[in-house]
Amino acid sequence: MITCGLKLTHDGAVALLEDGRLVFSVEVEKVANGIRYSEIEDTKTIVEILAAFGYKPGDVDEWVVDGWDGHEHGSVRIVNDGREQEFVVAPYRENDTITNLLEPGARGTLALGATEVPFVSYVHVAGHLASAYWTSPFVGEPAFVLIWDGGLFPRLYHVGSDGRVSLGGAMFPLIGHAYASAAHHFGPFRRDNEATTVDDLSVAGKLMAYIALGTPDPAVRVVLAELFGRHFEGSGEQAQAYRSTINGVGSNAEPSLRFVHAFYRDLRGAVEATDEDVLATVHEFLGDLLVERVSQAVRGWDTAQAGEGPWNLCFVGGCALNIKWNSQLRAQSIFRDVWVPPFPNDSGSAFGAACAHRAARGETSAVAWHVRSGPAVVPSDIPPGWTRSGPVTPAELGRLLHETGEPVVVLYGRAELGPRALGGRSIIAPATNPGTKQLLNDIKKREHYRPVAPICMVDRAPQIFDPGVPDPYMLFDHVVREEWVERIPAILHLDGTARLQTVDGNDDPVLAELLRAYEQASGVPVLCNTSANYNGRGFFPDVRSAAEWGAVSRLWSDGVLYEKEVS
């Protein structure tokens, strides 16, 4: 059975499952230096992605389209043969008529060239739930799934060992975009206008880094709690009017941001703290509220269904890219383990839509998948001014990194799923020079406070990081142990933490060989890792793109080293 999942709106992607195995999931931003968060605008893109892996539309048995913003239904537009087609898809989340996440919320027909194919569509949150649970280590066991997406109130679900999904409702009435919206009122991203739609999905990640410049302020927190009740959750007229208007069904389907901006306007007028401290307090307040409410809901769940704790938890949706909130949840003793997939935002929605349909058919075993299931490096020539230096093994590259102390663009194999570069589309550099973080931020045109992630062999991580447990997808917070702070300063965030990526030789033998050789040469088992891409675009698809970018003088791709000629 071949199932094709489609995410046509932002973070557009095409994913293919064949007999329970993920063949590929390709986000269009990772094709030809695409713009970050791109939609699929033309059906030609779908056909071309299928063809790149040897498939035609006629090979697909079932088509599944991700749901979108709306309470009763969503709608999407896409161009086919020069003409725009608009069709109905499932809504953003469950409602009074769609009470089972694994039942189709819409059916229709999609034109691909001269061919029309039937599709089913599941609510948007179903894709998030399915992409998290059926890729997790919990498949076949009961698990809670927490979903907090941009246009969604945080919602809790339970998946039984038989794959049945139970609804737990909203934890509190605030959309995920409220986090990034704080930066529209405080700090360097402050705006004069109040956006009514989400027009910059990159702000949340920048804000997560920026909060390290501030310190949570207890006085601000008191004001936040009072305003949160008044605007959103209390029994007064203002909060009741908000809840009668806003249901967390997608920020394009309801005027949710208008209420969020009013909340932050009132906060700005009521506090005197620095912007850095206010933003740090907002971050802490929302994280603590999330942990408190989820813990209460889990403890109050029917034990006949969920069993006795500790429990398994999956966290997914755009807010699950917040490594500090993830770590807070993982630190709770009521959770046996916490799983965040490497594609928690909408980059995993095409894959998730296909997984949801598979589960709806009664196939509730784990999906076979690998994080390196994106597009392969595209063959290309190199531009003038570059030379091919010959074959270089990963071990030789590791030694070269030690000898030169300079960064190298590394492109090999298939691209990673999700927003994190995990070594296959990365800039790799030694972490021993304190100036390296500034160098990497400069060449990537990023703010000075942005962190650079460490990569480390999984067996060495506990000696250097706390807790140092396996984290292959760079989605949790770790503290750098005191004895290593001065040895690897380039990966140290302003607050003493690091967004660690652990490497297992069975999962990535190339990166493991490089790391081991670097440690043998340097005595340091850690390297810097940041994504290799043009600013505001997806990962480099080929060597030529990285060479034309030209901010790093060495490129390594699939065993070959390329060097910029010295003029």
From TrEMBL:
One Pfam family it belongs to: Carbam_trans_N
InterPro entries named among the record's database cross-references: ATPase_NBD, Carbam_trans_C, Carbam_trans_C_sf, Carbtransf_dom, NodU/CmcH_Carbamoyltrnsfr
Coiled coil: none
Superkingdom assignment: Bacteria
The enzyme's E.C. designation: 2.1.3.-
Keywords annotated in UniProt: Transferase
Domain Carbamoyltransferase C-terminal: 405-548
Any GO MF annotation of the entry: transferase activity
Domain named Carbamoyltransferase: residues: 4-355
PANTHER family: NODULATION PROTEIN U (PTHR34847)
Family in the record: Belongs to the NodU/CmcH family.
Protein name, UniProt field: Carbamoyltransferase
Record organism: Nocardioides zeae
Organism classification: Bacteria, Bacillati, Actinomycetota, Actinomycetes, Propionibacteriales
